[in-house]
Amino acid sequence: MKNEFGMLKRKIILQIIFILVLTMIIGYIINYTLIDGMLQAPFADWFIRFCEDVLQLDYYAAQNAYRILFQQNKHLWLAIGLIILLLVIFYVALSRFTRYFILISTGVTMLSDESDKEIRLPSELEFMEKKLNTVKSKLEKRAKDAQEAEQRKNDLVVYLAHDIKTPLTSIIGYLSLLDEAKDMPVEQKEKYAKITLDKSYRLEQLINEFFEITRFNLQSIILDKEAINLNYMLLQLADEFYPLLAPKGQQAVVNIQGDIQIFADANKLARVFNNIFKNAIAYSDDNSTIDISAENVMDQTIITFTNRGKAIPPQKLEMIFEKFYRLDSSRSTQTGGAGLGLAIANEIIVAHGGSISATSNDDNTVFTVQIPHS
Fold this sequence. Notes:
single chain, alpha+beta, Helix Hairpins, five-stranded mixed β-sheet, two-stranded antiparallel sheet, 11 helices, 7 strands, 63% helix, phosphoprotein, transmembrane helix
Protein backbone atom coordinates (compact mmCIF):
# COMPACT_ATOMS: atom_id res chain seq x y z
CA MET A 1 0.00 0.00 0.00
CA LYS A 2 2.88 2.40 0.79
CA ASN A 3 4.43 1.79 -2.62
CA GLU A 4 1.07 2.35 -4.30
CA PHE A 5 0.73 5.83 -2.77
CA GLY A 6 4.41 6.64 -3.34
CA MET A 7 3.99 8.44 -6.67
CA LEU A 8 1.01 10.41 -5.38
CA LYS A 9 2.85 11.45 -2.19
CA ARG A 10 5.93 12.51 -4.17
CA LYS A 11 3.82 14.66 -6.48
CA ILE A 12 2.01 16.30 -3.55
CA ILE A 13 5.32 17.00 -1.76
CA LEU A 14 6.78 18.49 -4.94
CA GLN A 15 3.71 20.69 -5.33
CA ILE A 16 4.01 21.88 -1.70
CA ILE A 17 7.71 22.68 -2.21
CA PHE A 18 6.81 24.50 -5.41
CA ILE A 19 4.21 26.55 -3.53
CA LEU A 20 6.72 27.52 -0.82
CA VAL A 21 9.42 28.45 -3.34
CA LEU A 22 6.94 30.41 -5.44
CA THR A 23 5.74 32.27 -2.33
CA MET A 24 9.32 33.14 -1.35
CA ILE A 25 10.12 34.36 -4.84
CA ILE A 26 7.00 36.51 -5.03
CA GLY A 27 7.68 37.84 -1.52
CA TYR A 28 11.25 38.68 -2.51
CA ILE A 29 10.02 40.50 -5.61
CA ILE A 30 7.44 42.44 -3.61
CA ASN A 31 9.94 43.37 -0.92
CA TYR A 32 12.86 44.49 -3.05
CA THR A 33 11.02 45.67 -6.13
CA LEU A 34 7.88 47.22 -4.75
CA ILE A 35 8.58 48.05 -1.09
CA ASP A 36 12.30 48.89 -1.13
CA GLY A 37 12.54 49.54 -4.85
CA MET A 38 10.88 51.57 -7.53
CA LEU A 39 7.49 51.87 -5.86
CA GLN A 40 8.75 53.04 -2.50
CA ALA A 41 8.94 56.75 -3.39
CA PRO A 42 5.68 56.89 -5.42
CA PHE A 43 3.81 55.09 -2.63
CA ALA A 44 5.27 57.44 0.00
CA ASP A 45 4.28 60.48 -2.06
CA TRP A 46 0.77 59.11 -2.59
CA PHE A 47 0.31 58.34 1.14
CA ILE A 48 1.52 61.84 2.18
CA ARG A 49 -0.82 63.51 -0.32
CA PHE A 50 -3.65 61.31 0.93
CA CYS A 51 -3.01 62.41 4.53
CA GLU A 52 -2.83 66.10 3.49
CA ASP A 53 -5.92 66.11 1.26
CA VAL A 54 -8.21 63.66 3.06
CA LEU A 55 -7.04 63.65 6.67
CA GLN A 56 -6.07 67.37 6.66
CA LEU A 57 -2.60 66.75 8.11
CA ASP A 58 0.35 69.00 7.41
CA TYR A 59 3.29 67.74 5.40
CA TYR A 60 5.50 66.89 8.41
CA ALA A 61 2.69 65.10 10.25
CA ALA A 62 1.88 63.05 7.13
CA GLN A 63 5.56 62.18 6.64
CA ASN A 64 5.83 61.13 10.29
CA ALA A 65 2.68 58.95 9.95
CA TYR A 66 4.21 57.25 6.89
CA ARG A 67 7.43 56.57 8.80
CA ILE A 68 5.61 55.12 11.85
CA LEU A 69 3.11 53.00 9.89
CA PHE A 70 5.29 51.67 7.11
CA GLN A 71 8.99 52.27 7.48
CA GLN A 72 9.17 51.15 11.11
CA ASN A 73 6.77 48.18 10.54
CA LYS A 74 8.04 47.08 7.13
CA HIS A 75 8.66 43.49 8.24
CA LEU A 76 5.18 43.21 9.78
CA TRP A 77 3.53 44.35 6.57
CA LEU A 78 5.74 42.03 4.59
CA ALA A 79 4.77 39.09 6.81
CA ILE A 80 1.07 39.92 6.49
CA GLY A 81 1.42 40.15 2.73
CA LEU A 82 3.27 36.85 2.52
CA ILE A 83 0.65 35.11 4.67
CA ILE A 84 -2.16 36.40 2.46
CA LEU A 85 -0.19 35.40 -0.63
CA LEU A 86 0.50 31.95 0.82
CA LEU A 87 -3.18 31.42 1.62
CA VAL A 88 -4.18 32.38 -1.91
CA ILE A 89 -1.61 30.08 -3.51
CA PHE A 90 -2.43 27.25 -1.07
CA TYR A 91 -6.13 27.58 -1.94
CA VAL A 92 -5.29 27.24 -5.62
CA ALA A 93 -3.09 24.21 -4.88
CA LEU A 94 -5.78 22.64 -2.65
CA SER A 95 -8.19 22.91 -5.57
CA ARG A 96 -5.72 20.84 -7.59
CA PHE A 97 -5.48 18.23 -4.79
CA THR A 98 -9.26 17.89 -4.57
CA ARG A 99 -9.19 17.06 -8.27
CA TYR A 100 -7.87 13.62 -7.30
CA PHE A 101 -10.92 12.97 -5.12
CA ILE A 102 -13.21 14.22 -7.87
CA LEU A 103 -11.60 11.84 -10.38
CA ILE A 104 -11.84 8.89 -7.96
CA SER A 105 -15.45 9.81 -7.20
CA THR A 106 -16.16 9.86 -10.93
CA GLY A 107 -14.62 6.39 -11.24
CA VAL A 108 -16.78 5.06 -8.40
CA THR A 109 -19.83 6.63 -10.05
CA MET A 110 -18.96 4.80 -13.26
CA LEU A 111 -18.88 1.57 -11.25
CA SER A 112 -22.31 2.20 -9.74
CA ASP A 113 -23.75 3.25 -13.11
CA GLU A 114 -22.29 0.12 -14.75
CA SER A 115 -20.68 2.25 -17.45
CA ASP A 116 -19.11 0.47 -20.41
CA LYS A 117 -16.22 2.95 -20.52
CA GLU A 118 -12.87 2.09 -18.97
CA ILE A 119 -11.96 4.18 -15.92
CA ARG A 120 -9.05 6.56 -16.56
CA LEU A 121 -7.06 8.37 -13.85
CA PRO A 122 -3.78 10.38 -13.84
CA SER A 123 -0.49 8.46 -13.80
CA GLU A 124 0.04 9.12 -10.07
CA LEU A 125 -3.29 7.35 -9.43
CA GLU A 126 -2.50 4.43 -11.71
CA PHE A 127 -2.78 1.94 -8.82
CA MET A 128 -6.28 3.21 -8.05
CA GLU A 129 -7.20 3.05 -11.73
CA LYS A 130 -6.15 -0.61 -11.87
CA LYS A 131 -8.13 -1.46 -8.73
CA LEU A 132 -11.27 0.30 -9.93
CA ASN A 133 -11.05 -1.39 -13.34
CA THR A 134 -10.46 -4.75 -11.66
CA VAL A 135 -13.55 -4.27 -9.49
CA LYS A 136 -15.45 -3.14 -12.58
CA SER A 137 -14.45 -6.29 -14.47
CA LYS A 138 -15.42 -8.53 -11.55
CA LEU A 139 -18.80 -6.83 -11.17
CA GLU A 140 -19.44 -7.15 -14.90
CA LYS A 141 -18.48 -10.83 -14.81
CA ARG A 142 -20.71 -11.49 -11.79
CA ALA A 143 -23.62 -9.70 -13.45
CA LYS A 144 -23.07 -11.68 -16.64
CA ASP A 145 -22.76 -14.97 -14.76
CA ALA A 146 -25.89 -14.20 -12.74
CA GLN A 147 -27.79 -13.33 -15.91
CA GLU A 148 -26.61 -16.50 -17.64
CA ALA A 149 -27.48 -18.62 -14.59
CA GLU A 150 -30.92 -17.02 -14.44
CA GLN A 151 -31.43 -17.68 -18.14
CA ARG A 152 -30.31 -21.30 -17.75
CA LYS A 153 -32.70 -21.69 -14.82
CA ASN A 154 -35.58 -20.23 -16.79
CA ASP A 155 -34.81 -22.46 -19.76
CA LEU A 156 -34.55 -25.45 -17.47
CA VAL A 157 -37.91 -24.72 -15.84
CA VAL A 158 -39.49 -24.50 -19.29
CA TYR A 159 -37.83 -27.78 -20.32
CA LEU A 160 -38.93 -29.53 -17.12
CA ALA A 161 -42.48 -28.24 -17.49
CA HIS A 162 -42.51 -29.63 -21.02
CA ASP A 163 -40.95 -32.94 -19.95
CA ILE A 164 -43.50 -33.44 -17.18
CA LYS A 165 -46.24 -33.65 -19.81
CA THR A 166 -44.65 -36.72 -21.45
CA PRO A 167 -44.71 -39.17 -18.51
CA LEU A 168 -47.99 -37.71 -17.26
CA THR A 169 -49.64 -38.29 -20.65
CA SER A 170 -48.30 -41.86 -20.72
CA ILE A 171 -49.53 -42.54 -17.17
CA ILE A 172 -53.01 -41.27 -18.01
CA GLY A 173 -53.04 -43.24 -21.24
CA TYR A 174 -52.01 -46.58 -19.75
CA LEU A 175 -54.30 -46.18 -16.73
CA SER A 176 -57.19 -45.40 -19.10
CA LEU A 177 -56.45 -48.59 -21.03
CA LEU A 178 -56.37 -50.62 -17.82
CA ASP A 179 -59.63 -49.04 -16.71
CA GLU A 180 -61.43 -49.55 -20.01
CA ALA A 181 -60.19 -53.04 -20.94
CA LYS A 182 -61.46 -55.11 -18.04
CA ASP A 183 -60.78 -58.37 -19.86
CA MET A 184 -57.17 -57.52 -20.76
CA PRO A 185 -54.76 -60.47 -20.39
CA VAL A 186 -52.80 -60.59 -17.15
CA GLU A 187 -49.45 -60.42 -18.94
CA GLN A 188 -50.50 -57.28 -20.79
CA LYS A 189 -51.86 -55.70 -17.58
CA GLU A 190 -48.55 -56.39 -15.85
CA LYS A 191 -46.67 -54.85 -18.77
CA TYR A 192 -48.83 -51.69 -18.73
CA ALA A 193 -48.59 -51.49 -14.94
CA LYS A 194 -44.78 -51.75 -15.16
CA ILE A 195 -44.64 -48.98 -17.79
CA THR A 196 -46.97 -46.81 -15.70
CA LEU A 197 -44.77 -47.30 -12.62
CA ASP A 198 -41.64 -46.35 -14.56
CA LYS A 199 -43.30 -43.22 -15.90
CA SER A 200 -44.44 -42.36 -12.37
CA TYR A 201 -40.86 -42.61 -11.12
CA ARG A 202 -39.76 -40.32 -13.93
CA LEU A 203 -42.53 -37.85 -13.08
CA GLU A 204 -41.46 -37.91 -9.43
CA GLN A 205 -37.87 -37.22 -10.48
CA LEU A 206 -38.89 -34.20 -12.54
CA ILE A 207 -41.04 -32.80 -9.72
CA ASN A 208 -38.14 -33.27 -7.28
CA GLU A 209 -35.96 -31.26 -9.65
CA PHE A 210 -38.43 -28.36 -9.41
CA PHE A 211 -38.18 -28.49 -5.62
CA GLU A 212 -34.40 -28.73 -5.84
CA ILE A 213 -34.26 -25.49 -7.83
CA THR A 214 -36.37 -23.70 -5.21
CA ARG A 215 -34.35 -25.12 -2.28
CA PHE A 216 -31.08 -24.08 -3.86
CA ASN A 217 -32.26 -20.48 -4.31
CA LEU A 218 -33.54 -20.16 -0.73
CA GLN A 219 -31.17 -22.18 1.40
CA SER A 220 -28.08 -20.98 3.22
CA ILE A 221 -25.42 -23.50 4.13
CA ILE A 222 -25.07 -23.92 7.90
CA LEU A 223 -22.54 -26.54 8.96
CA ASP A 224 -22.98 -28.95 11.86
CA LYS A 225 -19.53 -30.47 12.14
CA GLU A 226 -18.62 -33.72 13.85
CA ALA A 227 -15.89 -36.35 13.71
CA ILE A 228 -16.35 -38.58 10.64
CA ASN A 229 -14.78 -41.91 9.74
CA LEU A 230 -14.14 -41.26 6.05
CA ASN A 231 -13.29 -44.90 5.33
CA TYR A 232 -16.70 -46.07 6.51
CA MET A 233 -18.54 -43.23 4.72
CA LEU A 234 -17.02 -43.99 1.31
CA LEU A 235 -17.44 -47.77 1.66
CA GLN A 236 -21.07 -47.26 2.62
CA LEU A 237 -21.49 -44.95 -0.36
CA ALA A 238 -20.21 -47.61 -2.76
CA ASP A 239 -22.58 -50.20 -1.28
CA GLU A 240 -25.63 -47.93 -1.43
CA PHE A 241 -25.11 -47.21 -5.13
CA TYR A 242 -24.86 -50.86 -6.14
CA PRO A 243 -28.42 -50.82 -7.64
CA LEU A 244 -27.31 -48.03 -10.01
CA LEU A 245 -24.02 -49.72 -10.86
CA ALA A 246 -25.30 -53.20 -11.55
CA PRO A 247 -27.54 -52.54 -14.62
CA LYS A 248 -24.56 -51.18 -16.57
CA GLY A 249 -22.11 -53.76 -15.31
CA GLN A 250 -20.19 -51.10 -13.41
CA GLN A 251 -18.44 -51.47 -10.09
CA ALA A 252 -16.91 -49.14 -7.50
CA VAL A 253 -13.55 -49.76 -5.86
CA VAL A 254 -12.63 -47.85 -2.69
CA ASN A 255 -8.91 -47.36 -2.07
CA ILE A 256 -8.01 -45.49 1.13
CA GLN A 257 -4.54 -45.01 2.59
CA GLY A 258 -4.83 -45.76 6.32
CA ASP A 259 -7.62 -44.78 8.67
CA ILE A 260 -8.83 -41.25 7.88
CA GLN A 261 -10.80 -39.13 10.32
CA ILE A 262 -12.09 -35.68 9.39
CA PHE A 263 -14.17 -33.03 11.18
CA ALA A 264 -17.05 -31.98 8.94
CA ASP A 265 -20.82 -31.93 8.45
CA ALA A 266 -21.58 -35.59 7.78
CA ASN A 267 -24.94 -35.10 6.07
CA LYS A 268 -23.74 -32.37 3.76
CA LEU A 269 -20.48 -34.14 2.96
CA ALA A 270 -22.45 -37.29 2.11
CA ARG A 271 -24.52 -35.18 -0.26
CA VAL A 272 -21.33 -33.96 -1.95
CA PHE A 273 -20.08 -37.53 -2.48
CA ASN A 274 -23.53 -38.67 -3.62
CA ASN A 275 -23.70 -35.95 -6.28
CA ILE A 276 -20.20 -36.64 -7.57
CA PHE A 277 -20.72 -40.41 -7.55
CA LYS A 278 -24.07 -40.17 -9.35
CA ASN A 279 -22.43 -38.01 -12.01
CA ALA A 280 -19.59 -40.53 -12.38
CA ILE A 281 -22.06 -43.42 -12.77
CA ALA A 282 -24.17 -41.53 -15.32
CA TYR A 283 -21.22 -40.71 -17.58
CA SER A 284 -19.09 -43.85 -17.15
CA ASP A 285 -18.75 -46.52 -19.81
CA ASP A 286 -20.63 -49.78 -19.36
CA ASN A 287 -18.66 -52.52 -17.57
CA SER A 288 -16.16 -49.97 -16.25
CA THR A 289 -14.78 -49.37 -12.77
CA ILE A 290 -15.16 -46.19 -10.74
CA ASP A 291 -12.17 -45.69 -8.43
CA ILE A 292 -12.67 -43.83 -5.15
CA SER A 293 -9.53 -42.95 -3.22
CA ALA A 294 -8.62 -40.82 -0.20
CA GLU A 295 -5.39 -39.79 1.51
CA ASN A 296 -4.07 -37.21 3.94
CA VAL A 297 -1.66 -34.63 2.55
CA MET A 298 -0.36 -32.27 5.24
CA ASP A 299 -3.46 -30.63 6.79
CA GLN A 300 -5.76 -31.58 3.91
CA THR A 301 -7.70 -34.73 3.05
CA ILE A 302 -7.88 -35.38 -0.68
CA ILE A 303 -10.69 -37.54 -2.08
CA THR A 304 -10.81 -38.46 -5.77
CA PHE A 305 -13.49 -40.10 -7.94
CA THR A 306 -12.10 -41.50 -11.21
CA ASN A 307 -14.32 -42.88 -13.94
CA ARG A 308 -13.71 -44.11 -17.48
CA GLY A 309 -15.90 -42.55 -20.12
CA LYS A 310 -16.20 -39.91 -22.78
CA ALA A 311 -13.99 -36.90 -22.08
CA ILE A 312 -15.66 -33.69 -20.94
CA PRO A 313 -14.86 -30.84 -23.38
CA PRO A 314 -12.69 -28.09 -21.81
CA GLN A 315 -15.35 -25.40 -22.33
CA LYS A 316 -17.90 -27.52 -20.45
CA LEU A 317 -15.39 -28.55 -17.78
CA GLU A 318 -15.11 -24.90 -16.70
CA MET A 319 -18.88 -24.63 -16.18
CA ILE A 320 -19.92 -27.90 -14.53
CA PHE A 321 -19.85 -26.37 -11.02
CA GLU A 322 -22.12 -23.47 -12.02
CA LYS A 323 -25.79 -23.29 -11.09
CA PHE A 324 -28.27 -24.92 -13.46
CA TYR A 325 -25.57 -26.16 -15.84
CA ARG A 326 -26.17 -29.67 -17.15
CA LEU A 327 -23.30 -31.54 -18.76
CA ASP A 328 -25.79 -33.39 -20.93
CA SER A 329 -27.41 -30.72 -23.08
CA SER A 330 -30.27 -33.00 -24.06
CA ARG A 331 -33.13 -31.94 -21.84
CA SER A 332 -35.03 -35.20 -22.08
CA THR A 333 -32.29 -37.63 -21.02
CA GLN A 334 -32.54 -39.59 -17.82
CA THR A 335 -29.11 -38.39 -16.73
CA GLY A 336 -29.88 -34.71 -17.23
CA GLY A 337 -30.95 -33.40 -13.82
CA ALA A 338 -31.59 -29.85 -12.72
CA GLY A 339 -27.91 -29.02 -13.08
CA LEU A 340 -27.53 -28.33 -9.36
CA GLY A 341 -25.80 -31.41 -8.01
CA LEU A 342 -22.22 -30.30 -8.66
CA ALA A 343 -23.02 -26.64 -7.89
CA ILE A 344 -24.39 -27.67 -4.49
CA ALA A 345 -21.36 -29.93 -3.90
CA ASN A 346 -19.05 -27.02 -4.68
CA GLU A 347 -20.81 -24.65 -2.26
CA ILE A 348 -20.75 -27.22 0.55
CA ILE A 349 -17.03 -27.88 0.11
CA VAL A 350 -16.25 -24.16 -0.06
CA ALA A 351 -18.24 -23.67 3.17
CA HIS A 352 -15.91 -26.26 4.75
CA GLY A 353 -12.89 -24.22 3.63
CA GLY A 354 -11.98 -26.68 0.89
CA SER A 355 -12.13 -26.87 -2.89
CA ILE A 356 -13.46 -29.12 -5.62
CA SER A 357 -12.15 -29.48 -9.16
CA ALA A 358 -12.35 -31.74 -12.18
CA THR A 359 -10.02 -32.87 -14.96
CA SER A 360 -10.90 -34.92 -18.02
CA ASN A 361 -9.17 -36.56 -20.96
CA ASP A 362 -9.76 -39.48 -23.31
CA ASP A 363 -8.69 -41.97 -20.63
CA ASN A 364 -10.68 -40.83 -17.60
CA THR A 365 -12.43 -38.07 -15.72
CA VAL A 366 -11.29 -37.22 -12.19
CA PHE A 367 -13.18 -35.22 -9.59
CA THR A 368 -10.95 -34.08 -6.71
CA VAL A 369 -12.22 -32.84 -3.35
CA GLN A 370 -9.84 -31.16 -0.89
CA ILE A 371 -11.09 -30.56 2.62
CA PRO A 372 -9.27 -29.56 5.83
CA HIS A 373 -9.00 -32.16 8.64
CA SER A 374 -10.82 -29.77 10.99
